[in-house]
Amino acid sequence: MNNRDIRLQALLERYKKNSGQSKSKAGDIYEAFLKTVEAGYWRSGDKIPTERQLASAFSVSEGTIQSALRQLVDNRIITRSRGRGSFIADFDEGDNIFMRFFPPSMINTAGGMMFDIVIDNVQILEIDSDGPWSEFLGSRPSYIRMIRYLTVDNRFTVFSDLFFDGGRFRPLLDFSPDTLAVIHVRKIIHDRFNVPFLNAERNLQLTVADAEMAQAINVEPESHLLFLEVLNYSLRREPIAYQRFYIPTNDWKLNIWSGK
To answer: How far apart are CA 225 and CA 249, in angstroms?
Structure first.
C-alpha cells in the first residue's frame, strides 16, 4: 500500500469513527482531514485526491466534497490551484521575525531597502510563573520561554520573548541557543511536533520601560516603548504560542507583515 492509499484509508477511518458528530457530511469530512493532519498523515505540499476520487471514496456527492474543501481552504489547511489540484498548505510562515524597518522618507515599502534585523542573543529556559502567557495558553505546570535580543541595523535593540506549553514542548530545551538563532522556531514546532502556526492576532500598545527592560535594551528608564503582543494559533484555533516585543522609539517606519 502506497502513501496515497494509506492517507485515504486513514481519512475514511476517521470519517467513519466520527460520522454524525458534525452538522453535515461535509463537516464530518472536514473533521476527518483535520484529524489526519494532526496525526501526521499529511505534510505540507502533499497533493490530496481529486473531488471525484474523494466523492467515490466517501460515497457522497461532489458538491459535499466541494463544501468540505471550501472549509479547508477557508481555514488555511489546503490550497487549491486550477489545473493542478488541491494541496496541503505550506504551514511554514517563513521569516519568524515579521517586523521590517524602513527609512522614514520611504513612501512605498514594497521591495524597498530595509534595515537588517540580527538575532545576536538567545536564551531558552523552563519557568513555572504565570503571566499574560498563561492567560492565553491556559494554566500549565510550566512554560518554555525563549528570549531573544534583536539588533536593528546596529542602531538599537528589540527585546522579544516567546512562550510555549512546557509539558508539550519541553524537547525545545534540547536545542542550543545557537541553533535557535538560525532556525525558525515555527519550523521546529511544525517539523518536530507537527503543529503548524496558522493564524495570529497582533496587538500594539505604547508603554514605558521599567528598570530591568531599560537595562536589557540600553534605553533610559521610563522611556517610551512600542509593545507588540502576538497571539499565535494552530489548528482549530488552538492557542500555541504567546509572543511579545519591546521596541524602542525611533523615527523609522515599522512594517508588520503577515509572514507570507
So the answer is: 6
184 backbone φψ class: left, alpha, beta (φ>0; ψ -120 to 50):
beta
Q: Where in the sequence is the domain holding 77, given as residue range(s)?
A: 3-88
Strands, E assignment, the chain: 78-81, 85-88, 99-102, 117-127, 143-152, 156-165, 199-208, 224-233, 239-248, 253-256
Residue 180 shares a structural domain with residue 247? yes
Q: Are residues 62 and 117 in the same domain?
A: no
Please report whether residue 224 resides in a domain.
yes
Q: pLDDT tens across 78-88, in order?
A: 999 888 899 98
The string of pLDDT tens digits covering residues 69-124 is: 999 998 888 999 888 899 988 765 444 456 778 877 776 655 555 566 788 899 99
Q: Domain boundary residue among 23, 53, 88?
A: 88
Distance separating alpha carbons of residues 216 and 209, to the nearest angstrom: 10
Enter the pTM of the model. Answer: 0.76
